[in-house]
Write a structure and sequence with these properties.
This protein is mainly beta and 163 residues long. The protein has one domain: Jelly Rolls, CATH 2.60.120. The protein is built from three helices and ten strands; from the N terminus they run H-E-E-E-E-E-H-E-E-E-E-E-H. The strands form two sheets. A six-stranded antiparallel sheet has the order 1-10-3-8-5-6. The longest helix has 8 residues.
Length: 163
């Protein structure tokens, strides 16, 4: 699969520093899966960053449900200035309603969360939230929406097959 041809990237929230960040709502109506990628550069603070994903029935947050169970997520080890094979490996986390990052100072960390829309029931909109962190941390996040539900129909509309 070629990522650029089969996915749609969306910023979850602007790069920010601070104790809490509320992301924008994103609609998954046309996609089967979503991947949240959070990149954190930690400053001189031993406070762990806590990430949560909420769901709703529309991007206006109708019927919002806070803290869905995140069944599939991975985190890197501490990404120091000179990363090693041991620190750049992803480790699968245990299913939880939120994800807590490292408390090691002055390192970076990447968290990847995969969500299947079938797990959401009647909900089809998601929001990434940094519940708590520290002003010394810089955090960026984006969604990658993929497995378009109507890709074949869309491809035929763009490039119709002659009969």
């Amino acid at each position: 699969m070629i990522l650029a041809e089969n996915s749609f990237p969306v910023r979850a929230f602007p790069t920010a520093t601070g104790a809490a960040i509320t992301g924008d709502w994103v609609s998954l109506k046309g996609y089967e899966r979503a991947m949240l990628v959070v990149i954190e550069e930690r400053g001189a603070s031993a406070v762990a960053t806590v990430i949560r994903v909420d769901k709703a029935t529309d991007v206006a947050a109708t019927g919002e449900s806070t803290g869905i169970t995140l069944n599939n997520f991975w985190q890197t080890g501490d990404l120091a200035a000179a990363p090693t094979a041991a620190t750049t490996l992803f480790t699968k986390g245990t299913a939880a309603a939120s994800i807590t990052g490292t408390t090691t100072q002055s390192v970076g960390q990447v968290t990847v969360v995969e969500i299947d829309t079938e797990e959401l029931g009647a909900f089809d909109c998601l929001q990434a939230t940094v519940v708590s962190s520290n002003a010394a941390h810089t955090i960026a996040a984006f969604w990658i929406l993929y497995n378009a539900r109507y890709a074949e129909k869309l491809a035929n509309m763009i490039n119709p097959v002659a009969d």
